[in-house]
Specification:
This protein is an alpha/beta fold and 229 residues long. The protein contains seven helices and 13 strands. Helix 7 links the parallel strand 12 and strand 13. It is globular and about 50 Å long. The relative contact order is 0.15.
Length: 229
Amino acid sequence: MLNFTGIGSAFNPEDGNTSAYFSEEDSFYLIDCGELVFKELLREVDFSIFSDLHIFITHSHSDHIGSLGTLISYLYQHHSIKVSIYHGGIHLVDFLNRVGILSNYYEEVMDKKLALKNLTFEWIETKHSNKIPCFGLLLSFKDSTIYYSGDARIIPQRIYHAFLTDEIDLIYQDLSIHPENTSHLTLKKLTDLIPESKRRRIIAMHLEENSKEEIEAVGFQTAQQREKN
């Protein structure tokens, strides 16, 4: 359902910064925009076919926001697109001001829940770093509902119960194979939480080096980055 420009954790640039996108008719939707994402988007996406563009930012770590300013400026100057940027409550404008992005290049939207054409979304507050706020993203399409964790060391209880009762079809979850990790959900915790029969509906992302085999061995899927030409 989602296309990934990258699936790597902050210290795994070989697999790119974790970022996903999808499109519907003439609308383009992007989740997060880390340092390496702009380059991948230019390689993968023809922005000339879209009339509006929507960017969701889960939190302000640089591997999730690092090339956002460049993308905003490029879209405005080269495609005359004023992007809409959605977040749950981060210091976005301060960041964009510091990197020189003019306020007329974008629209900031801080609604916690909103409908966009055939899509509805809701920000779900979660726990990642103690220093900054972080939000997961609940996305409902015409025929499916998914949860995208951003970065988080938990699955919020509301999301967990909705997944177990099949109200949520897929969870895209950042995942660490190291039990001592305190910023991301660990494979051990996720294995304890999710019954084996439901593990194929969890898609692990934000992956550490050489972690796919271990994650898939216990029944979870891993996100797939698009092949480079």
